[in-house]
Design a protein that fits this description.
It is built from 26 helices and 17 strands. The strands form 3 sheets. An 8-stranded mixed β-sheet has the order 14-13-15-12-11-16-10-17, sandwiched between helices. The chain has a 6-stranded mixed β-sheet with strand order 7-3-2-8-1-9, with helices on one face. The protein has a 3-stranded mixed β-sheet with strand order 4-6-5. The longest helix is centred in the first third of the chain and has 45 residues, at 245-289. It is elongated, with a radius of gyration of 36 Å.
Length: 814
């Protein structure tokens, strides 16, 4: 027979609630799959941006370096790049008969990036240290050359700005090194002027070829630049050493993108299955609402499959519209859930393909469910509950156990090395989510059983609770569905937030232990000997620490002012007790170090008197001795200033007092944070999916209340007419909805906190560094969840009572 094709889409308008639910279901489906594609692409771009932030801006393009060359050859080679630098060997240039160590160099536009102390012009620019040592003044001529000094500039020192970053090893001297090892550069105004230098500078020159590039946004741009740059260097044909930092950055970014995508795949599959189950539920409700029409069509000869396509004609357009709206929402909300907003070319088309695929699956599910419903209803087959008899919670729990074994054995996955990215073991990463899913399935099964036996409960002495229980039992299907989605929502939000927060704190704490403080610099032993005083601006925030092989020499009075410590008062108490008495110096034993007297070069005989599990800079192995216990501080390996100040503030204070330093370290940049960020981005998306599920649970709860509005109105109105106080009815609805929300929140939080607490220490991107990741403070998250849950409960109870307050008894009874 011919089905009413044209009337079907228009007939859907008679059930606006079904239309809205259909659109919302595929909107969420489309959002999940599109957001996963966009998030993965954004993660790759964000990883590239992070790698670029750690690279010198002139080292992004592949570069060339060489040394031991004739100076004329170096000048010729340097001219073949955008920013070619040519530097003579270190010699002893003579201006006034007082020769000191120095080298000459030229780099295009270098003079514009120097700070002039005196003079200017286009002659020789002499660094202030050389000018002071050799008593150079403006107008002096270089002996053996026609070049004249026209400016004196402030020496470059770490940390240098981005323009000098790639040249730092050449242009920044090490003031603590021996004479002639390194020196500042005397700059000439043009490359041709290097040929005017005295003959002793004509050999053993150094050259660097750098190329300017615009900042890269996507991996495709980076790969294109890498290919073009390497081809460019090959075409130059110069016998120099090639440096290609970009290829490593691209590899790391690709690995990060792949890790995020693979880690999200199980979550996306689970979300799609839940969404398709929602589509099936909507189709069942549609079949119930269209029962009379479907029976008429079946009697007239329509097959169950034809009736299934009848459902697509009515629900298909809303399902397609919802999927496209999900894609739009995923794109617009990208800044809220993704690590960046830069997408690779074609990513939106890939996301559209995924959306169309899940929309097609939704249409197929609609056809099959509608056909199955018609077949079961009109052809008289007995119900089959085989799927309901399967203990799904045990199946999922078994998968969780297997995931735990993988997690406890492998951690994140492959064996890690410093500076490498982990290849994430997806099965291990899924452990906390599998625990939450198993808890949700178990909770729904127990709730279904409990509500099945609830008619035996007699709580009439508390009528509000009795009525709430009766209403829950009367709607066991929607109630268990809301509980399932609610537990998953709470659990995924908690797991995602806990693991992401743990990665942030782990990166911060590990970098603090690795450096020891926010910033450190190596200084000469003059400060330790008291010959040079520490600047006043550094008092109270900086301490002097001696470093020998396997030991630290600390000042008990100032160490806790600067060092990164979990319990400063305890450490202060321990190191304050390290008072030397005799030839043996008392020491703190750190971690797994031997508990016996030990001799370390440059230090007296050390005897452990107390123990700490870990210590800044030492990690879990070494010894700590008080500075007063070391009689010969000049024999200590090296001395460092540790400070709570940012590195630029620390070095500025030292430069202002003329204190030399070297080997700077910044806590914010010392560790490659990309492995931590990869895990953080992955679980940040998990938390975002949890928010989506929370919206689904809240909307499902409110829709369930709205669908039962007439039933609630009849029972509530009759109850109030029979003498029940409105406050009792209000309390009853609050108990009904509040009990459901409390169960979802309690089970989700317990399952997520327990699983995350077990998993977080093993999700360690840098296991060779202490401390291991730990759960962050989750009280703010708990407070926000309780607040949002309470708001949903109040709104749902208000919706239920609204029908009672506006009901007309005559119409209800009729």
């Amino acid at each position: 027979m011919q089905l009413p094709w044209r009337a079907a889409p228009r007939a859907a308008l008679s059930s606006p609630l079904t239309l809205l639910v259909s659109i919302a279901t595929t909107l969420l489906l489309g959002f999940v799959v599109a957001a996963a594609a966009l998030h993965s692409s954004a993660a790759g771009s964000a990883a590239l941006a992070y790698q670029q932030s750690r690279m010198c801006q002139h080292s992004v393009h592949p570069a060339l370096d060489g040394d031991g060359l004739p100076l004329s050859t170096a000048v010729t080679m340097a001219a073949r790049s955008d920013l070619g630098g040519a530097y003579s060997r270190i010699g002893r240039p003579d201006f006034n008969g007082i020769a000191t160590y120095g080298r000459f160099g030229h780099r295009p536009d270098a003079l514009a990036h120097l700070t002039v102390v005196q003079g200017g012009g286009t002659g020789l620019w002499v660094p202030q240290t050389i000018a002071t040592a050799a008593r150079v003044e403006i107008g002096d001529r270089l002996t053996g050359s026609s070049l004249v000094v026209t400016a004196i500039y402030a020496d470059l020192a770490q940390p240098v700005d981005g323009w000098w970053c790639s040249e730092a090893k050449t242009v920044v001297p090490n003031p603590l090194a021996g004479d002639g090892v390194s020196t500042s550069v005397i700059w000439v105004p043009s490359a041709a002027d290097l040929s005017l230098l005295p003959p002793e500078f004509a050999e053993n020159a150094t050259v660097s070829l750098r190329f300017t590039t615009a900042p890269l946004s996507t991996l495709a741009e980076a790969e294109a630049l890498g290919d073009k740059g390497n081809a460019r260097l090959t075409a130059l044909g110069l016998p120099l050493t090639r440096t290609d930092l970009l290829s490593g950055a691209i590899t790391a970014a690709r690995t990060s993108e792949r890790n995020v995508s693979s880690a999200l795949l199980p979550l996306v599959i689970i979300s799609v299955l839940v969404g398709l189950a929602g589509v099936g539920t909507v189709t069942v409700q549609w079949a119930q609402r269209r029962h009379s029409e479907l029976r008429l069509l079946w009697v007239r000869g329509a097959s169950p499959l034809a009736l299934g396509f009848r459902g697509v004609l009515e629900l298909g357009l809303p399902l397609v519209l919802g999927g496209l709206l999900g894609l739009v929402a995923a794109r617009l909300l990208l800044p809220l859930y993704a690590p960046g907003v830069v997408l690779a070319p074609g990513t939106l088309w890939v996301a559209l393909g995924f959306v169309l695929a899940v929309v097609l699956l939704s249409l197929v599910v609609t056809v099959l469910v509608a056909a199955w419903r018609a077949h079961r209803t009109f052809q008289g087959r007995a119900r089959s509950r085989r799927l309901g008899l399967v203990p799904w919670e045990l199946v999922v729990a078994g998968l969780a156990v297997l995931a735990w074994f993988r997690l406890s054995h492998n951690g994140l996955g492959t064996a890690l090395k410093p500076g490498s990215l982990p290849r994430i073991d997806v099965a291990a990463l899924a452990f906390p989510l599998l625990v939450v899913l198993a808890a949700a399935l178990l909770a729904t099964r127990l709730l279904r059983w409990s509500l099945g036996w609830s008619h035996h409960v007699q709580w009439w002495q508390v009528p509000a609770a009795q009525l709430a229980l009766r209403r829950l039992a009367a709607a066991v299907g929607p109630v268990t569905g809301v509980l399932l989605v609610g537990v998953l929502a709470v659990g995924t939000i908690a797991v995602g937030s806990a693991v992401a927060g743990a990665q942030q704190s782990a990166l911060d704490s590990k970098s603090g232990v690795f450096v020891g403080a926010n910033s450190t610099v190596q200084v000469s032993q003059d400060i330790a000997l008291g010959r040079v005083a520490l600047p006043e601006t550094l008092r109270g925030n900086t301490t002097l620490v001696g470093v020998s092989t396997g030991a630290l020499v600390v000042d008990p009075t100032t160490f806790t002012d600067a060092a990164v410590l979990d319990d400063p008062s305890s450490v202060r108490s321990l190191i304050s007790d390290l008072r030397r008495d005799g030839e043996v110096a008392p020491a703190l034993r750190i971690g797994r170090s031997a508990n016996q007297e030990i001799q370390i070069a440059g230090l007296p005989l050390l005897k452990p008197v107390a123990q700490l599990p870990s210590f800044p800079k030492l990690g879990t192995r070494g010894y700590v001795v008080a500075r007063d216990s070391v009689p010969a501080v000049e024999q200590v390996g090296s001395w460092h200033l540790w400070s709570t100040l940012p590195l630029p503030a620390l070095t500025s204070a030292l430069k202002a007092e003329g204190i030399n330093y070297t080997n700077v370290a910044d806590r914010a940049r010392v560790l490659d944070g990309l492995p931590f960020l990869t895990v953080e981005w992955t679980f940040g998306f998990v938390a975002a999916i949890g928010v989506v599920l929370a919206v689904v649970a809240a909307v499902a709860l409110l829709l369930a209340v709205e669908v039962r509005r007439r039933q609630n109105a009849v029972s509530g109105a009759l109850s109030t007419r029979m003498g029940m106080r409105p406050s009792v009815l209000w309390s009853s609805h609050l108990l009904e909805v509040g009990a459901l929300a409390s169960l979802a929140m309690g089970i989700g939080l317990v399952a997520s906190f327990a699983s995350a607490g077990a998993a977080v220490p093993r999700l360690d991107p840098a296991p060779w560094l202490n401390p291991a990741p730990m759960l962050p403070d989750l009280l703010p998250l708990l407070g926000s969840m309780v607040t949002c849950g309470a708001l949903v409960v109040v709104v749902a109870a208000w919706l239920a009572l609204r029908g009672v307050r506006t009901a007309r008894m005559g119409e209800l009874l009729r």
